[in-house]
Specification:
CATH class: Few Secondary Structures
Strand order of the largest sheet: 1-2-3
Structural class: alpha+beta
Helix content: 25-40%
Number of domains: 1
Strand content: 15-25%
Shape: elongated
Distance between the termini: 19 Å
């Protein structure tokens, strides 16, 4: 049986923590930043845990993570 391939796009966007959670960056931080408040932009910097509904898909995309 050949090795399964990791999807490169998923590997670039998601990181796995030591406890096994998958972390992602928040959206809406790339452009049109002047109308967003400083507080909102600051909160968009933080990583957040991937939702449980998408966990199965991501584990399939990244089999060795």
């Amino acid at each position: 049986m050949p090795k399964m391939k990791t999807r490169s796009a998923a590997a670039k966007r998601f990181k796995k923590t030591g406890s096994g959670k998958i972390m992602r960056m928040k959206a809406n931080k790339s452009h049109i930043l002047n109308k967003k408040t400083t507080k909102r932009k600051r909160n968009l910097r933080k990583q957040t845990e991937l939702d449980a509904t998408n966990m199965k898909q991501m584990k399939r995309c990244m089999p060795y993570m």
